[in-house]
Design brief:
The chain is mostly helical and 164 residues long. It is built from four helices and two strands; from the N terminus they run αααββα. It has a two-stranded antiparallel sheet with strand order 1-2. α1 (15-49) runs antiparallel to α2 (56-94). The longest helix has 39 residues, at 56-94. It is elongated.
Length: 164
Amino acid sequence: MAAPFANRPSDGPTAVDHQRALLEDARRELRRARVAVADAAANLEAIRRDRDQASAAAVEAAQANEERAASALGAIRRRTREELASLAVDLGNFLTPTPEQEVARLSAGYPIVLLPVRIETRFTADQLLLRVYPDDIVADSFEPELTDEEIADGQAYWDDGLAR
Protein backbone atom coordinates (compact mmCIF):
# COMPACT_ATOMS: atom_id res chain seq x y z
CA MET A 1 0.00 0.00 0.00
CA ALA A 2 1.38 3.40 -0.96
CA ALA A 3 1.70 6.24 1.50
CA PRO A 4 -1.11 8.83 1.43
CA PHE A 5 1.45 11.61 1.07
CA ALA A 6 3.92 11.73 -1.76
CA ASN A 7 5.76 14.52 -3.53
CA ARG A 8 3.20 14.26 -6.32
CA PRO A 9 0.43 11.72 -6.78
CA SER A 10 2.31 9.86 -9.53
CA ASP A 11 5.72 9.74 -7.82
CA GLY A 12 7.31 6.58 -6.51
CA PRO A 13 9.66 6.48 -3.53
CA THR A 14 10.62 9.87 -2.17
CA ALA A 15 14.05 11.29 -1.40
CA VAL A 16 13.31 10.60 2.27
CA ASP A 17 12.71 6.91 1.51
CA HIS A 18 16.00 6.76 -0.40
CA GLN A 19 17.89 8.52 2.38
CA ARG A 20 16.40 6.20 5.02
CA ALA A 21 17.64 3.20 3.03
CA LEU A 22 21.14 4.73 2.80
CA LEU A 23 21.14 5.40 6.55
CA GLU A 24 20.06 1.83 7.28
CA ASP A 25 22.87 0.52 5.06
CA ALA A 26 25.37 2.72 6.89
CA ARG A 27 24.11 1.48 10.25
CA ARG A 28 24.47 -2.16 9.11
CA GLU A 29 28.06 -1.45 8.04
CA LEU A 30 28.68 0.24 11.37
CA ARG A 31 27.54 -2.88 13.24
CA ARG A 32 29.82 -5.05 11.07
CA ALA A 33 32.75 -2.69 11.64
CA ARG A 34 32.23 -2.79 15.41
CA VAL A 35 32.31 -6.58 15.30
CA ALA A 36 35.46 -6.48 13.15
CA VAL A 37 37.19 -4.16 15.66
CA ALA A 38 36.17 -6.37 18.58
CA ASP A 39 37.43 -9.47 16.73
CA ALA A 40 40.74 -7.78 15.87
CA ALA A 41 41.18 -6.63 19.48
CA ALA A 42 40.41 -10.14 20.78
CA ASN A 43 42.86 -11.64 18.28
CA LEU A 44 45.60 -9.22 19.34
CA GLU A 45 44.93 -9.95 23.00
CA ALA A 46 45.12 -13.69 22.35
CA ILE A 47 48.46 -13.29 20.52
CA ARG A 48 49.87 -11.16 23.36
CA ARG A 49 48.79 -13.73 25.96
CA ASP A 50 50.60 -16.49 24.09
CA ARG A 51 53.75 -14.42 23.60
CA ASP A 52 56.03 -17.43 24.01
CA GLN A 53 54.65 -18.96 20.83
CA ALA A 54 53.93 -15.71 18.99
CA SER A 55 56.54 -13.90 17.01
CA ALA A 56 56.97 -10.15 16.94
CA ALA A 57 55.74 -10.18 13.33
CA ALA A 58 52.46 -11.82 14.38
CA VAL A 59 51.94 -9.18 17.08
CA GLU A 60 52.67 -6.37 14.60
CA ALA A 61 50.31 -7.91 12.04
CA ALA A 62 47.54 -8.19 14.63
CA GLN A 63 48.12 -4.57 15.73
CA ALA A 64 48.00 -3.39 12.13
CA ASN A 65 44.79 -5.38 11.60
CA GLU A 66 43.23 -3.79 14.68
CA GLU A 67 44.29 -0.31 13.53
CA ARG A 68 42.81 -0.91 10.06
CA ALA A 69 39.55 -2.09 11.62
CA ALA A 70 39.45 0.94 13.94
CA SER A 71 40.16 3.28 11.02
CA ALA A 72 37.39 1.67 8.98
CA LEU A 73 35.05 2.02 11.96
CA GLY A 74 35.85 5.74 12.18
CA ALA A 75 35.16 6.21 8.46
CA ILE A 76 31.85 4.36 8.73
CA ARG A 77 30.87 6.43 11.78
CA ARG A 78 31.51 9.60 9.76
CA ARG A 79 29.45 8.22 6.85
CA THR A 80 26.60 7.33 9.22
CA ARG A 81 26.62 10.86 10.65
CA GLU A 82 26.59 12.30 7.10
CA GLU A 83 23.68 10.06 6.07
CA LEU A 84 21.77 11.09 9.20
CA ALA A 85 22.39 14.77 8.45
CA SER A 86 21.23 14.25 4.85
CA LEU A 87 18.10 12.53 6.11
CA ALA A 88 17.38 15.50 8.37
CA VAL A 89 17.72 17.86 5.40
CA ASP A 90 15.48 15.68 3.23
CA LEU A 91 12.90 15.45 6.01
CA GLY A 92 12.96 19.23 6.34
CA ASN A 93 12.32 19.54 2.62
CA PHE A 94 9.65 16.84 2.70
CA LEU A 95 7.76 18.32 5.66
CA THR A 96 6.69 21.50 3.97
CA PRO A 97 5.55 24.45 6.06
CA THR A 98 2.53 25.72 4.11
CA PRO A 99 -0.91 24.13 3.73
CA GLU A 100 -0.84 24.77 -0.01
CA GLN A 101 2.29 22.66 -0.37
CA GLU A 102 0.77 19.92 1.80
CA VAL A 103 -2.38 19.77 -0.36
CA ALA A 104 -0.26 19.71 -3.52
CA ARG A 105 1.48 16.58 -2.21
CA LEU A 106 -1.72 14.63 -1.53
CA SER A 107 -2.12 11.48 -3.54
CA ALA A 108 -5.27 11.07 -5.62
CA GLY A 109 -5.40 7.46 -4.43
CA TYR A 110 -6.79 8.47 -1.03
CA PRO A 111 -9.85 10.55 -0.15
CA ILE A 112 -9.28 13.81 1.66
CA VAL A 113 -12.96 14.36 2.50
CA LEU A 114 -15.30 11.75 3.86
CA LEU A 115 -18.85 12.77 3.02
CA PRO A 116 -21.82 11.63 5.10
CA VAL A 117 -23.74 8.56 4.01
CA ARG A 118 -26.84 6.73 5.23
CA ILE A 119 -26.49 2.96 5.45
CA GLU A 120 -29.45 0.59 5.34
CA THR A 121 -28.97 -3.06 6.20
CA ARG A 122 -31.05 -6.13 5.51
CA PHE A 123 -30.42 -9.71 6.49
CA THR A 124 -31.27 -12.62 4.24
CA ALA A 125 -30.88 -16.26 5.20
CA ASP A 126 -27.13 -16.25 4.63
CA GLN A 127 -26.14 -12.68 3.73
CA LEU A 128 -25.97 -9.19 5.10
CA LEU A 129 -27.09 -6.72 2.45
CA LEU A 130 -25.95 -3.11 2.60
CA ARG A 131 -27.38 -0.16 0.77
CA VAL A 132 -25.44 3.11 0.93
CA TYR A 133 -27.10 6.46 0.20
CA PRO A 134 -25.36 9.82 0.05
CA ASP A 135 -26.59 12.01 2.88
CA ASP A 136 -27.00 15.77 3.11
CA ILE A 137 -23.94 17.81 3.90
CA VAL A 138 -24.56 20.14 6.80
CA ALA A 139 -22.52 23.31 6.80
CA ASP A 140 -23.28 25.83 9.51
CA SER A 141 -22.04 29.36 9.13
CA PHE A 142 -22.27 32.16 11.61
CA GLU A 143 -23.30 35.55 10.33
CA PRO A 144 -23.37 38.20 13.05
CA GLU A 145 -25.81 40.44 11.14
CA LEU A 146 -29.52 39.64 11.49
CA THR A 147 -31.49 39.26 8.30
CA ASP A 148 -34.64 41.33 7.73
CA GLU A 149 -36.74 38.20 8.25
CA GLU A 150 -35.05 37.47 11.60
CA ILE A 151 -35.63 41.07 12.75
CA ALA A 152 -39.32 40.90 11.78
CA ASP A 153 -39.76 37.52 13.55
CA GLY A 154 -38.08 38.88 16.69
CA GLN A 155 -40.27 41.99 16.71
CA ALA A 156 -43.41 39.84 16.26
CA TYR A 157 -42.36 37.57 19.14
CA TRP A 158 -41.79 40.43 21.55
CA ASP A 159 -44.91 42.26 20.45
CA ASP A 160 -46.96 39.10 20.95
CA GLY A 161 -45.29 38.36 24.32
CA LEU A 162 -45.82 41.89 25.67
CA ALA A 163 -49.44 41.99 24.55
CA ARG A 164 -50.41 39.06 26.77
